[in-house]
Design a protein that fits this description.
The complex is a heterodimer of chains A (566) and B (76). Chain A is of the alpha/beta class. Chain A is 40% helix and 21% strand. In chain A, helix 4 links the parallel strand 3 and strand 4. In chain A, helix 1 crosses helix 14. The longest helix of chain A has 20 residues. In chain B, helix 1 packs antiparallel against helix 3. Chain B is an all-alpha fold and 76 residues long. In chain B, 33% of the residues are buried. Chain B is built from five helices and no strands. At the A-B interface, helix 2 and helix 7 of A face helix 3 and helix 4 of B.
Chain lengths: 566, 76
């Protein structure tokens, strides 16, 4: 039941202006009461050598706004960063003033990076590093080195503060406060931590922004004012350029408008170049007189993402509330008549910011467009074999591919629907599995005649003599719907060097709100395909797996099987 | 007599009534600990768009002394 979501959403819209202001006021932020039910509860372990306490009340507000309720476990002041992993932390935060180190400046960076390396090796949780110094060059050097170090997320507070014209350091505060982070920097860093840095490390990302048109992307009403009557103000242009940039970072856009489709198409064709966005920037377009909630559901289905990966932006609070009631997991942003405010609200919407731009964004949009062609093929083909033959699918298997670790970790962290065991493997988790002699990590890339989807699946497991334990199986939603799930699995397993000696495969899985597609598929492997699977594991015989038919039309290419550990 | 905005900030940060805030003193009022002391001063700085001197952090102990510091800084 989501009967309370209306008032909760109204409260959220009320907070939006305070949270996303260019310079939020301390008193206003601290007065915000955030009662939204959290999406994540846990412990944040904080390792520090200067005070973080002045930020904590602010950080808690921003985290709650992002749906995170953290208990803070704060370590003692420690310049040596002698890290001891805490059991069950949702994340580790390194809050460190580099200028406190009594080391030559040229060795500080190497020393600090070596300490972070140690933290990464000892912790199984995401590690977020916030290095502070009066020397932006030192922070840049440290950030650059840690970005290259697998597994840690390193923020650059100097750049963050510079972007808002805020000094990072205020020496006055060192004595009374125990930190030199200035008053305004405390606000900017608390907001960045609470809405960008920590959520991006511990929560699934939003993948798509569904945008209303009139009053959101331009001023005026297209149907009333006409194509030349609507106004694209400089702020609206900035908003559109910002949205276009987000598409390059891996966020999809969709257009949701109550309008005449022909008129909308003419608008985008005729108002170039002052209209920054073009129709081709949208992965999905729903222009009709129907309900926006239905439109958003259709967009989510078409783009193969769940509704909780969608952010909906509209200037009409009534439309937003209607969507809130029908699609309770969609995140909502109230667009302002001042498009600068809309831009800021999107900028400070948790779940849209990410540590690395998504390298597969172009592939994803191309894949979505290719799906229309695939669906036509499926309609025309009499059966799955014929469809796969038409599709000309080619799987490329790569065993323990160290060069793909980041992509595989992204896949594990971001995929929700076909994610069997939800292990949320970090870069270091995957690296460790690749190094263990009895373990394997297989990446699977897919291309067909219509598009090249890149790496779309991960199989991770362990060999125990006659038994293989698959403890993670993930297939990107972009690859679903082609009837390839079982084929991907069996082709990957059959290429294991020791496969001939295996008699059974154990699949470990968890039951989550969102991984029904994976569990439904798993149920088809067991003899009673209709049985409800609860969390745990099931054992499937190789004999049963061998019943999976791989059509000759599906080509399988193996790369670097020599790297296979087992 | 301290100004109302200063008293309101003290009341809000210490979570006490305006009347109590008027009389509150650092070192005497239990709620006025070192962390809240800094919070009060930072909110006053933000509200009045000024910066206290480093020595003010130690010398300010009440609404009246905050007001006096504000007058001094603005006078400068």
């Amino acid at each position: 039941m989501e009967t309370s979501r209306g008032p909760s959403q109204l409260a959220r819209f009320g907070r939006q202006a305070v949270i996303s202001a260019p310079r939020p006021k301390r008193a206003e932020v601290l007065q915000l009461e955030v009662e939204d039910p959290p999406r994540l509860r846990g412990t944040l372990s904080i390792w520090r050598n200067h005070a973080i306490e002045p930020l904590l009340p602010l950080l808690e507000v921003f985290l709650k706004h992002s749906g995170i309720c953290f208990e803070m476990a704060i370590g003692e002041y420690d310049d040596s960063l002698w890290f001891a992993p805490a059991e069950g932390s949702a994340a580790e935060l390194i809050w460190f003033d580099l200028d406190r180190l009594n080391l030559d400046s040229h060795v500080i960076s190497d020393w600090f990076v070596s300490r972070i390396d140690r933290v990464i090796s000892m912790s199984s949780s995401p590690v977020v590093v916030v290095p502070v110094s009066r020397d932006p060059g030192l922070v840049n050097a440290v950030t650059g080195q840690i970005e290259k170090t697998l597994g840690a997320f390193c923020a650059n507070p100097s750049t963050t503060c510079e972007g808002f014209g805020t000094p990072l350091i205020d020496e006055r505060l060192s004595g009374p406060l125990g930190t030199r982070v200035s008053r305004d920097a405390q606000m900017q860093l608390a907001r960045a931590l609470g809405i960008h840095w920590l959520p991006a490390a511990v929560l699934p990302h939003h993948k798509l922004i569904a945008l209303d048109l009139d009053g959101t992307l331009h001023q005026g009403v297209l149907g009333d004012d006409g194509i030349n009557g609507i106004e694209v103000s400089p702020a609206h242009r900035r908003l559109q350029d910002f949205l276009k940039k987000l598409t390059r970072d891996g966020i999809m856009l969709a257009l949701v408008s109550r309008n005449d489709r022909q008129l909308v198409e003419t608008l985008f064709a005729e108002r170039q170049p002052d209209y920054g966005l073009s129709l081709s920037d949208f992965a999905a377009i729903e222009v009709s007189w129907g309900s926006k909630a239905d439109a958003i559901r259709q967009i989510a289905a078409f783009t193969r993402i769940s509704e909780d990966s969608v952010v909906f932006v509209d200037d009409n609070a009534g439309e937003l509330l209607t969507v809130a009631l029908s699609c309770p997991t969609v995140a909502l942003i109230h667009a302002s008549s001042d498009a600068n405010c809309t831009l800021d609200a999107i900028r400070w919407q948790s779940g849209l910011w990410r540590w690395t731009s998504d390298s597969v964004s172009d592939i994803r949009t191309a894949d979505l467009k290719a799906n229309i062609e695939r669906e036509r093929l499926l309609d025309e083909a009499n059966n799955l074999d014929r469809y796969l033959e038409e599709l000309g699918a080619e799987l490329k298997l790569n065993f323990n591919p160290t060069e793909d670790i980041q992509r595989l970790s992204d896949l594990s962290l971001k995929t929700n629907q076909f994610n069997l065991n939800q292990l949320r493997l970090s870069v270091s988790d995957i690296a460790t599995r690749m190094q263990r002699p009895d373990s394997f990590v297989i990446s699977i890339a897919l291309k067909d005649r219509i598009s090249d989807s890149g790496i779309i699946a991960l199989v991770s497991g362990q060999w125990l003599g006659k038994l293989v334990v698959v403890d993670e199986l993930i297939i990107s939603c972009r690859a679903l719907g082609r009837g390839l799930e079982s084929i991907i699995l069996i082709q990957a397993l059959r290429k294991l060097k020791f496969w001939e000696s295996v008699t059974h495969v154990t699949f470990r899985f968890q039951t989550t709100e969102r991984n029904l597609p994976a569990r439904s598929w798993l149920a088809t492997l067991v003899e009673d395909g209709n049985q409800q699977l609860s969390s745990g594991e099931i054992v499937v015989s190789v004999e049963a797996l061998n019943r999976i038919i791989v059509p000759n039309s599906v080509a399988t290419l193996v790369i670097d099987q020599d790297k296979e550990s087992c | 007599m301290a100004s109302l905005p200063v008293i309101e900030i003290i009341a809000r940060v210490l979570r006490i009534s305006v009347e109590q805030a008027r009389r509150a003193e650092r070192g005497i009022s239990q709620e006025w600990d070192s962390l809240r002391h800094i919070e009060i001063l930072m909110q006053v700085e933000e509200e009045f768009e000024l910066y206290f001197d480093e020595s003010d952090f130690a010398q300010i102990i009440s609404a009246d002394s905050i007001d006096a510091a504000i007058v001094r800084i603005r006078g400068n």
